[in-house]
Design brief:
Elements (H helix, E strand, L loop, with lengths): L2 H7 L8 E7 L14 E2 L2 E2 H11 L3 E8 L4 H10 L5 E6 L4 H9 L8 E6 L7 H14 L1 E6 L5 E4 L5 E5 L6 E2 L3 E4 H13 L8 H6 L5 E4 L10 H14 L4
Parallel strand pairs: 1-4, 1-6, 4-5, 7-12
Antiparallel strand pairs: 2-3, 6-11, 7-10, 7-11, 8-9
Length: 244
């Protein structure tokens, strides 16, 4: 029987639970320093990210994929900030895809769902986790998306515009991206075997013929990439009443 047909026949639990893989093994080249340890609202970026998954009732365990030279520091951070759902802190690979595969390979074998989230998205909310997990429990794969406020253009190799892209059907994808465990493990394995460098995990699932259900994302769920992103993040925390 086709694995996807079998998965669709499986009963979906009324309250789905998942394992969370937090990918925090990037080089931070555009930031100029390790962004995971930067202080945001009085807490390191990574600690703030982990705390949201710690507090989510739908998350059973957390695996952190870190840089090899920060394994102990990451483990100490988890202890300091009370991240009790941590089951493993592991070293990432050369690419994000390799790091995601390392993470999903370490989850509890009984896990039905796996959420993969960028460690550099510390402003994720429990509500966003909840609606993405529930959507994945029903549709096998789900990811939050937001619309683009700008006009989008397709261009050729020489930088000339080819035409306008429909903003109604072209969206920006965020994390967490949540998948049935069997699907994302197989998809990432194939992607790494083929030497593919993917920018998100939905792309790996798409290669397996899996359609990802979109859910409403959050404009505040920004990814910390450049120094000015920290300024935006601080302003968001002020609006939430969470800044020091």
């Amino acid at each position: 029987m086709n694995i996807f047909k079998k998965l669709r026949k499986d009963k979906v639990p009324k309250e789905p639970h998942c394992s969370a893989v937090i990918v925090a093994a990037g080089s931070s080249e555009r930031m100029g320093s390790d962004k995971m340890s930067l202080m945001l609202g009085g807490k390191p970026v990574l600690a703030r990210t982990l705390k949201v998954f710690q507090d989510s009732p739908l998350v059973d365990e957390i695996i952190v994929v870190s840089k090899i030279d920060r394994l102990q520091e990451t483990a100490d951070l988890c202890k300091e900030y009370g991240i009790e759902k941590i089951s493993r802190v592991v070293a990432g690979g050369k690419t994000r895809t390799e790091s995601a595969l390392v993470g999903v390979s370490e989850v509890d074998p009984k896990a039905r769902l796996i959420a993969i989230h960028d460690g550099a998205r510390p402003l994720v909310t429990e509500d966003l986790i909840l609606r993405t997990v529930y959507a994945a429990s029903e549709h096998m794969a789900a990811a939050p998306v937001v619309s683009s406020p700008d006009t989008l253009k397709a261009v050729d190799a020489d930088g000339f515009m080819l035409g306008t892209v429909d903003r109604e059907t072209t969206l920006r994808v965020q994390t967490p991206q949540v998948f049935r465990a069997e699907i994302i493990k197989g998809a990432l394995t194939k992607a790494v075997e083929k030497g593919l460098v993917l920018t998100d995990d939905c792309a790996a699932a798409e290669m397996m013929g899996v359609r990802t259900k979109t859910v409403l994302g959050d404009d505040d769920n920004i990814k910390i990439t450049r120094p000015r992103d920290m300024l935006f993040a601080e302003e968001i925390l002020k609006e939430r009443g969470e800044a020091l």
